[in-house]
Amino acid sequence: MISELVFTPKMFLTLSNSDSIMETYTITFKALTDNTNYSFTLGTLDTFAEDFGGSDVIATVPSNAPDEKLESIGMTKYFSGYQALLNTGEWFHYRADGETYITARIAKRNSLAFIVINADTGEIEYESQDTDRRILNVSDTEWHGCVQKRLDLEPGGNYLIGFYSTEYIPTDDVMNDNYYIWIGYPYFTNEKISYASASYSVSAGTKRTFTFTLSGFTKSARANNMTRFYATGGKKSMDPRIKSCQITAPNGQTFQAQLGYYGSLPAAVFFNYLNNPSNIPLNGTWKVTVEAADDIPDFNFRISGHVLTIVGNDGN
After folding, report:
1. What are residue 66's phi and psi, to 5 degrees?
2. What's the whole-model pTM score?
């Protein structure tokens, strides 16, 4: 799975010779796609940033479009960059196909920035702003800095994207101190969700319809195959007192909740994620129609599990 998720656009080979003997090496380059930029640079670890950073060293990267397997678990591909190169700038060539999210993440720093240049015209397309940054709390002690922006780039257009740090980053291991980049599709994460409505009474042999307006959740949150819905009495997972139950989502999608439980949504669709009619937003008005076989004095509507969200400010 990891090999399918992470790719490396820049490779480094370390050669050393302590015997003072002349050695000859043959290096062959092979492009896997058309319209590929590459460069070959010689340098040393002592001058790593100066030798391998800057706009003279550019590698082509593809869109991070996921395969079906990754999309089913809510993940897009990403690639790693080198923190040491952020001090001089690390550059990539990207051929756009329209809407493009550019995201970068680094551990325990909030200094990431980027610039996008139209390679065909030489004009600056976008420079990231302080408002494009966001702190991601990974745990009680771990946090990451993230910079992200959604851009409408010309399909088929060639762009140069340079990542840099607004403050100097010291690195102890230039080859292994990394940061991470998503270009094309957003960087997604599965966010834990918990919602419970007030309780209501449903009498035996009756059918009632309730509406619940949800707000305050992440704007990009979409229900997926990790989201669970309960329309039952108390905190029951399934309730035999439920004769029938239909749940209508804010986008109009409906599904039947057998015994008040439903957990069979498909994975969210990444293409046109925010506006795709197949993706169910969490915020909005939910409607639950329930028919009771027996009295249910404590009927309520609950959502738990996880929902898919975009990491970053755009989309939220």
Report:
1. -85, 160
2. 0.86
